[in-house]
Structure formats: C-alpha cells, structure tokens
Specification:
The chain is an alpha+beta fold. It is about 35% helix and about 25% strand.
Length: about 300
C-alpha cells in the first residue's frame, strides 16, 4: 500500500522535533566549562635514615629466615670511639620498628632491654660486645641479637651491625647501611649520653630520699666488717672482674638495709655485690645533733682476680 503524503509529512515533523530535543539536551552539557584538573601532588622524598633502615631491615629479615633465628633482640648502638648518643638509641629503635613490620620475624620488645640495662647500671659500650651482649640476651630469654655501631664519613653516617645466634654466641652475618646526614641526625649524634644511659632513662629515680653522708652536718659511716664479695659462677668461669658502684642506705645501727646499683657489672656480679654489702657492718653516721642517723652512702664493691 502506498503511504499518503500527509502521513509522510507527519513522520518527518516528529523526527525533526526529536532531533531538536536531543540537540537542545546536548548543547547545555557541551556549553559547561571544563572542570579544572587537580595536578598530582609531588611525592615527599623519604627520609634518608628511614629509607636506609627499611633496606637494612629487609636484609636482616633474609638472614633471620635463612638461619631460622627466633626471639631477636636489637640492642642499643654506639657511636665513634665507643661513645653513646641519642643517635645510637634512635637507630636501634628505628631498626627494631622496621623489623616489627615483618610478621615473620619473632622480635623481642626493646623496652625489656632498656629496663634491664638501667636496673643493672650496665655500660652500653661494653654491652655492645659479643660476650656481654650474649649474656644480656640470655637473661632476657632472647635467642638471637643484633649489636652495632655507627661512624661519620663526610656527609654520611654508616651503621655497621652484626647478627648473633645464642647461646654461643655465633656470628650469623655482618651488614651495613649508609644514609645522608640531616639536621636531625647530626644533632642527635652530638647529644651524648652517659655510658649507662641513665640520664635518658631517668636514673635519678634510683637515689634514696635519705640525707647524703658527708653533707649538711651528717658524718660518713665507716666499715667495721666489710668482707670481699663472692664471685658469680659465670664471672669466675669467664675470669671477669671489675668494680660496681652502689647507693646504700645505712641505718642508725650501721646495717645496710637497701642497696641499688648505679654502675654495674655483667655475669651476675651485681647480685653478688648487693648480697655482699648487706652483710657488712658499719659504724653509723651521726646527724647534726650528734646522734646516730640513717644516711645514703655511695659504695664501690670490687671483684679482683688473683
């Protein structure tokens, strides 16, 4: 059947109207201004020390996995000439933190190390040697440990570490990390700590509240019976001696009721020093009024090898 002219005309008009509608809908969107594109933010360069610790932690993790090490303890690091500074403390903390991100590593809490060396008054540079470090690790039930030191060369710091397995100790691997100096790391390297680290760990809390002997009218107590202390089994085996420094509370009768290590020794000698002074008998100090008085007294206890 042939379509009539009227129907063709009507169809053309409907199509034209549809096109106009679509065109009108498209035009407003096309006329919208283009949205400004936010430029990508420049990536912040990673701190050189943090980057070095990340890479070093990866190498330590490989050694740990290869040697099947457990209960790894990162000890404080020392600086040039066996000096102890805030940088050595920070580097050890940062390495331990980087290792903690790896769930495959069995890691000891460094707070246990800090509390132990503070309580025992241990010298950090000496604790950074294999045998004393191994003894500390055994006291804390660590099965492996990391010790190290850093050096300065021009614009860089170089951290050298050694991984050991207990209880020998057996050296597992030497590693190193190099990172550029920054204002922060240079400042931390210049901030020295005492060898026991007690100025960082608030060692002044160890001091007694009693008056100091020899000050403000208080005399000093004197030894009546002060025998030499006994050696610990471990110290005798290793033929290790030395001098421990304690603060002791000497009461009105001349007995030592309490004693705290200020600068200590390894291999159980601190315990023997405290046990020894508690057996001492002293002439008590006198106070400003001339009567016997309790005081705190600095005491050195020496372990001699003959």
């Amino acid at each position: 059947m042939t379509e009539s002219p009227d129907r063709r005309f009507l169809a053309v008009r409907q199509f034209t109207s549809l096109v106009r509608i679509v065109f009108c809908m498209v035009i407003p969107f096309a006329a919208l201004p283009a949205r400004a594109q936010t430029p990508p933010q420049a990536s912040t360069p990673e701190d050189p020390e943090a980057a070095a610790m990340k890479d070093l932690a990866g190498n330590v993790a490989q050694a740990v996995k290869k040697s099947h090490l457990k209960n790894l303890l990162v000890m404080d690091f020392q600086g040039p000439n066996k000096k102890y500074s805030l940088l050595g403390l920070k580097l050890a903390d940062d390495l331990s933190a980087a290792l903690a991100l790896n769930p495959a590593i069995s890691l000891m809490d460094r707070r246990q190390f800090a509390e132990f060396v503070s309580r025992e008054g241990l010298l950090i540079p000496e604790a950074n040697q294999p045998d004393p470090a191994n003894w500390i690790a055994n006291q804390l039930s660590a099965k492996s440990f990391v010790i190290g030191d850093y050096e300065e060369t021009g614009n860089d710091f170089i951290l050298h570490i050694t991984i050991y397995d207990c209880p020998k100790p057996r050296m597992v691997q030497d590693l190193k990390a190099t990172f550029s100096k920054t204002t922060e790391t240079t400042s931390l390297a210049g901030r020295a700590l005492t060898a026991t680290g007690d100025d960082k760990r608030k060692g002044d809390q160890k001091l007694s509240s009693l008056p100091h002997s020899g000050q403000h009218g208080y005399s000093m107590p004197h030894c009546q019976y002060c025998p030499s202390p006994e050696f610990s089994t471990e110290a005798r085996r290793l033929k290790v001696g030395g001098t421990a420094t304690l603060i002791a509370e000497v009461d009105e009768t001349g007995q030592i009721a309490n004693a705290v290590i200020i600068q200590g020794l390894f291999y159980g000698l601190n315990e023997k020093a405290v046990e020894g002074v508690k057996r001492w008998r002293m002439t008590p100090a006198t106070g400003p009024d001339g009567s016997p008085a309790a005081v705190q007294q600095l005491i050195e206890v020496s372990f001699h090898l003959y």
